[in-house]
Design goal:
The chain has helices spanning 2-38, 45-70, 78-94, 99-123, 128-147, 157-164, 172-190, 192-202, 204-209, 214-240, 251-261, 273-292, 297-315; strands spanning 152-153, 242-243. It is mostly helical. The longest helix has 37 residues, at 2-38. It is found in: Cell membrane.
Length: 319
């Protein structure tokens, strides 16, 4: 009796510990296994490369979103910031501004918009949900006004290299995404700034008491999120050779889903870039699988939502 009683909790603990560590990875592998059985095109090199290329935009946005959620905030404006910075960058290029300068100005605009989000949130003590919801509407309106609702096409070949180039046989968007994830991981796990972000997410009051400049960090995180949204937008328009003022609609939802699927706690303080990468891969593979299986767009969101909910259910067994 005593032995049985002692064994059951231990087994339960092991199961929960196992799901805690590998639940999201198991979900990803199961999804890949199912798609490989349902479609003989899924496990081809060209398709897997295409999946990686497709997730770069969401992945880069999700990196910034991970920082934001880690400190207990949210950024709903990433899709609209992407659209506004994309059309401005495309217009600068068509005016003859050199490519490096146009890229820097576009990213700078994204960082400026993110800084505005941070300053309003911190300075006026406005919940980030409300601040970034306002920026979502304002930036989208500015993008539509700036272009009069028309797309900007015909970008220089040197700029399109960001989306279509393949140095050393590797698509440029994938290289950029790997660099962004690697740098973000190093900052989060190997620097005191990362430790301070976790401290703010766990308990902002305690973090302030030990001397961490909480308001400055929160503003900086929104700045980073805006800059990464701009970078993601440039990769997108370089690939499509077209900047649309309506681009990026609902991108914030995919980014948030990738972060939360990856195990980052919505209230902050727990999470990391490895989990976010897995979350972005799950969403990308799911999108690709639905296309390969010719699932009607009428049911696509339903299937996508059900699979994401199932993955979250498996992963959240730890709680």
């Amino acid at each position: 009796m005593t032995e049985a009683t002692a064994t059951t909790p231990t087994g339960t603990w092991h199961l929960r510990g196992y799901l805690q560590r590998f639940g999201i990875l198991i979900s990803f592998l199961l999804l890949c296994l199912a798609l490989s059985l349902l479609s003989d095109r899924f496990l081809t090199v060209s398709n897997l490369t295409n999946v990686l290329r497709q997730i770069t935009v969401n992945g880069i946005i999700a990196v910034g979103m991970t920082y934001v959620i880690l400190i207990g905030d949210i950024d709903l404006s990433v899709g609209s910031v992407l659209a506004l910075t994309s059309v401005v960058t495309a217009d600068l290029l068509q005016m003859g501004v050199p490519v490096p300068m146009a890229i820097l100005l576009g990213i700078g605009l994204g960082m400026l918009l993110g800084t505005v989000n941070g300053l309003i949130t911190v300075g006026f003590q406005v919940p980030s949900f409300i601040t970034t919801l306002g920026m979502l509407t304002a930036a989208r309106g500015m993008a539509l006004t700036y272009t009069q609702g028309r797309p900007i096409t015909g970008l220089p070949d040197s700029f399109r290299f960001l989306g279509r180039g393949e140095p050393f046989g590797m698509p440029m968007p994938i290289i950029l995404a790997v660099l962004v994830f690697a740098l973000a991981w190093v900052i989060l796990r190997r620097t005191r700034y990362g430790e301070q972000l976790y401290a703010i997410g766990n308990n902002p009051v305690a973090a302030r008491l030990v001397g961490i400049p909480v308001n400055r960090f929160r503003t900086l995180v929104f700045t980073v999120s805006g800059g990464l949204s701009a970078l993601a937008g440039m990769i997108l328009i370089a690939r499509l050779d077209s900047a649309q003022p309506t681009a990026g609609v609902a991108f914030e939802l995919d980014a948030i889903a990738a972060v939360v699927l990856g195990g980052t706690r919505f209230t902050g303080g727990v999470g990391g870039m490895g989990g976010t990468l897995l979350g972005a891969l799950i969403i990308g593979v799911l999108d690709n699988g639905l296309n390969l299986l010719n699932i009607s767009s009428l049911y696509e969101q339903l299937v996508k939502g059900a699979v994401i909910a199932l993955a979250l259910l498996i992963h959240r067994q730890k709680e």
